[in-house]
Amino acid sequence: MHLPHSVGLQKTTLIDYPGKVASVLFFPGCNMRCSYCHNPDLVLGRTEGLINRDEVIQFLNNRAPLLGGVVLSGGEPLLYRDLKYFISEIRENGDFSIKLDTNGLRFDSLKELLESKNPPDFIAMDIKSALSSYDRFFIDQNEIKNIQKSIDLILDSKIPSQFRTTVHPDFIDVSMIDEIAHMIRGCTSYVLNGFRPGNCLEPSFNSHQETSSQFLKDLQKGMLDQDIPCTININ
């Protein structure tokens, strides 16, 4: 895919780009199927209710004096091969910092973007679980190796970054801490987000309990014990 004709738009956010007032652009389509995902329409590539890309650029142009950043999220933005040109177009219309949200599966696309003239200014990568459990997210086994490669690439790039995990007890537990800590060793920020039911990709997950604050704290302690700088986000 080159670029989507339309994207989702959250006009203003104070929490999705650390330290900046930003807009979030949501790209349709994803190469993962996380049962607890809260963006099922985007994951499945539905475009109803999305906004024409040219209109989004015009909106950003008009809001440029008020915004510090633009977040490219999804779905998975790296499914689109021409993302670097879209970043260039955004920057032409304002002095924006660009944050990329990615799941890390498209290592080649990430590498190409970071080596281009228009790399992002900040990268947030989702760590779904320990690598040994990634097959539970319906990923081709041959792609799982790209997760560690993408992590290493991000860390080596020296671009400000953050790794994060949505914590659902079916997919992550305290026994995985050592493996996950090894995966992201050297990172400067790791965030644990609690799962909350509602609008999940797998409807049965809407009846699941939200992640307890104690479970998040137990995971956090394990990460801190492994010298991983870790914070928790309890919605």
Automatic annotation (TrEMBL):
The keyword Metal-binding applies. Pfam families: Radical_SAM (PF04055). Residues 16-227 form the Radical SAM core domain. Its cofactor is [4Fe-4S] cluster. Keywords: Iron, Iron-sulfur, Metal-binding, S-adenosyl-L-methionine. Coiled coil: none annotated. GO terms for molecular function: catalytic activity; iron-sulfur cluster binding; metal ion binding. PROSITE patterns: RADICAL_SAM. InterPro entries: Aldolase_TIM (IPR013785), NrdG2 (IPR012840), Radical_SAM_PqqE_MftC-like (IPR050377), rSAM (IPR007197), rSAM_sf (IPR058240). The keyword Kinase does not apply. PANTHER family: GLYCYL-RADICAL ENZYME ACTIVATING ENZYME MJ1227-RELATED, RADICAL SAM DOMAIN PROTEIN. This is Anaerobic ribonucleoside-triphosphate reductase activating protein. It comes from Oceanispirochaeta crateris. The lineage of its organism: Bacteria, Pseudomonadati, Spirochaetota, Spirochaetia, Spirochaetales.
